[in-house]
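To whoever is on call:

I kicked off a structure prediction for a single chain this morning and the downstream step that reads the tokens threw a length-mismatch warning. I double-checked the sequence; it's 517 residues and nothing unusual in it as far as I can see. Pasting both halves so you can look.
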Amino acid sequence: MQGNPDAVIVGSGPNGLAAAVTLAAAGLKVQVIEGAPTIGGGCRTEELTLPGFWHDVCSAAHPLALASPFFRRFDLAARGVRFARAPVEFAQPLDGGRAAIVTRSVEETAARLGADRRAYRRLFGPPARHMDEICAALLAPLRRPPAHPLVLAAYGRRGILPASAVVRRWRTPEARAVMAGAAAHAMMPLSAVPTAGVGIMLVALAHAVGWPVVAGGSARITDAMADAVVAAGGSIETGRWVRSLAELPPARAILLDTSPRALVSLAGDRLPSRYRAALRRFRYGAGVCKVDFALSGPVPWTNEDCWRAGTLHLGGTFEEVAAAEAEVAAGQHPERPYVLVVQPGVADPSRAPAGRHALWTYCHVPAGSDTDMTAAIEGQIERFAPGFRDLILARAVRTAAGEEAHNPNYVGGDIAVGMQTVRQTVLRPAARWNPYRTPIRGVYLCSSATPPLPGVHGRCGELAALSALRDIFGVRDVPDISPAGLRPENPANPKNPADRRNPATPLSRLPAAGESH
């Protein structure tokens, strides 16, 4: 890139790249700086165990990427990203060879649940039918009135509850297990609000769009985003850790795909004390211990339907999962943890050599834990798939402390970058009208620590970038990020809105905290 950039993005996770895509589509000169050797943040794919076994580093199944308004406009399919689907969206095995099985069909799933068939249809049928409207509201700026308030109110009436309250009248272990496995993604006790909302959204997404993996690995998503940024004239630099905002090249806008803790470290006393204190009060959630396996064959699940599932939740009954999550919240390491499993080879055989499989797993642990949970994870898999250990060719383990060392955004191993309490959903990361702006003019936070919610959907980065475009560059139209629109020569987008305004100003000359913004 010749000359100073108009905007610098620190961090190349999905949100940082979404911000870069949005700004580049508006005609700005964009520079992305990434500390790791490769781009992608938690959306990367690497040979973690043995050559030829490709493991997703963090995110693996992608319902929100399919539902996201950002990615729909970006058009991943047109950019060569293909989603691969398993016959069963997710499953939760139970002792005795039984299992809770969720497919794309609400009716087919409910038909397996006996006495809870009608209750299941009543709870998950409406949000599955209205998932476009629900996602449009949940992935929109919080200060914007929802376009479909009645649909959102119907979802929110149950979603604001703890998962334990929603299943109180359910009778079958299978139906209760569906909610347990999905709600435990919240990484909070199932007696906490709004775990029901997380569970309902994820189950409804399974019915509405599915829980696919990406053919070839999750990195195909961020690679496509990076390619679009570079094609539009932007640049991406890897292997450069930024320790201070003063290290960045002169630019009128700085967007940080970082945790609130990193923002405090980068900005130092340029932030007013009240805002710094609010960021330091920001609560991070439980960590994860992740174990990837190279296997000589498919996992020998006792229940045959589990062989066809892309994702599995291990932990047994609702009560067992709830007990494990409560132990983690109390700072303990469960002997029988809730384990999330993705077997991508069911849908995407390219992830491992012929006949072999790459298996992705993690369990929740107390924040900052350096405990290796491999034995406990293997024990839960062996419980529902006897003979599993005989298939293991190699393992790659990363404790919660190791997760943070590998990706500083994951404070304490928290891959959601902040607890998903009601307060931290609405006021994330601090109580501000625009959560993306910081008190330093031209500096924005665009990570998963900002609204709307964690996940690979790109909206945190896009909404932060739209704020910067309005505030700094006077661009109020939403840029065209489609393959047709994201081109330097595209006449529909400004050639370079920064050229019509003041030249880039070094950060050291921007107004100090507390000055006009």
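Update from on-call: the warning came from a stale cache, not from the record. Cleared it. Sanity check on the structure: Confidence is low (pLDDT under 50) at residues 490-517.
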